């Protein structure tokens, strides 16, 4: 359920008709619903109630400062994967102790920042990283609270490019090798091996893979404790999938079912838990609104050419993702739905939002809304083809605000300069 619904014949974001926002900021633009973000955060938090757990929103899914501030006000922590994201989380008001730092390639500078800002946990993904962190912490006279991120060798059954828990993926430390690295960690100065972290992938649509991974973690806690380790935190990552097209609903597990599975697998261990959900919180809370430029008929199909491109929303091009598309003007009962291919203006064949979708008659100037674009939408956009990054707008009831404006052309090229020999 989300808050992008038809009222009086027009698609609204909460109580604001989308054409009103289009008039104010131009198209294309991302639009986020405060009510949906709040609802999703609440549903997830309720699903894990009673578990002594922190919900650390995976900032990579949506790192707009206003979105993060809203989630921080709701009580969210943050999962960060770069120094930039760490700074952003703090700026948005996330308390440092509720921040966990993941990622395979943290630099010395980033590790130092993590120690200086006193974040809750660093998830270490390799022996060299562990040794680097130890040296930095010992030098600073500090102790780093760490988890080793284990690679449980579980296939999450998701798209290949967003699977992270198979033994051939670059992430984590093989679950077979982890016990020996814990023993190394125990001997290293400046390191407190307090926990275990795991994250097997994203857009996961069945609970089985999570369950296999969490059982492996549970088993490891028991063994490490028997070996004298004081394991007291478990970071179970993110990964819960969302429906992207309306008839997907049935295949996606609910947060409640996920929470129950967590209770079954690791609930008895008495560990403090952290979760790193991204998509389930922000996915359906955002849409990308775009305007039709041309309708182009060929011998084979009808192309709807819109002003948003793969640079604005790369998921269809990158992961063959399908996003439902709605017309902003509500279809009438008598409208005959026609098969169309919705494409952008970028000079690549991959610049296609849907291969075949059925829409009512469309004409140039019409507005379309690409749904479930709140996670991994704006954050992954680029200015390819020298197209400006699109604005982001936040709606709350009948109010809206541009939480990121469209840059001017001069701003887009402000970081570039000519070498003296070309002047
Ligand atoms: N924790 C870690 C360590 C992660 O790497 C990720 C996502 C998450 C949490 C959040 O996962 P979520 O709950 O959002 O599934 N760009 C891709 C998704 C990449 C996910 C990367 N890691 C997409 O658009 O589908």
- What is the fourth-level CATH superfamily of the largest domain? Alanine racemase
Our estimate of the beta-strand percent is 15-25%
Number of domain units:
2
Total number of β-strand segments?
21
Q: So what's the CATH class of the largest domain?
A: Alpha Beta
Write up what this structure looks like.
This protein is α/β, with parallel strands linked by helices. The chain has 2 domains: 4-31 and 284-412, Lyase, Ornithine Decarboxylase, Chain A, domain 1 (Beta Barrel), CATH 2.40.37.10; 34-282, TIM Barrel (Alpha-Beta Barrel), CATH 3.20.20.10. The chain contains 12 helices and 21 strands. Strands 4, 14, 15, 16, 17, 18, 19, 20 and 21 form a 9-stranded mixed β-sheet that branches. An 8-stranded parallel barrel has the order 5-6-7-8-9-11-12-13, surrounded by 5 helices. The structure holds ligand LLP. The site of ligand LLP has 22 residues, from α10 and α11. Residues 58, 60-61, 79, 102, 162, 199, 202-203, 237-240, 276-280, 315, 319, 375-376 line the site of ligand LLP.
Features:
423 residues, Lyase, Ornithine Decarboxylase, Chain A, domain 1, TIM Barrel, 2 domains, nine-stranded mixed sheet, binds ligand LLP
How do the strands and helices of this protein lay out in sequence?
Layout: E1 4-7, E2 10-13, E3 16-17, H1 18-25, E4 29-33, H2 34-47, E5 53-58, H3 65-74, E6 77-80, H4 83-91, E7 99-101, H5 108-116, E8 121-124, H6 127-140, E9 144-151, E10 173-174, H7 178-187, E11 191-197, H8 207-226, E12 233-235, H9 255-266, E13 272-275, H10 279-282, E14 286-297, E15 302-306, H11 315-319, E16 325-327, E17 338-343, E18 352-359, E19 367-370, E20 392-396, E21 399-404, H12 409-412
Parallel strand pairs: 4-20, 5-6, 5-13, 6-7, 7-8, 8-9, 9-10, 9-11, 11-12, 12-13, 15-17
Antiparallel strand pairs: 1-2, 2-3, 4-14, 14-15, 14-19, 16-19, 17-18, 20-21
Helix pairs in contact: 2-3, 2-9, 5-6, 8-9
Ligand LLP is lined by residues 58, 60-61, 79, 102, 162, 199, 202-203, 237-240, 276-280, 315, 319, 375-376.
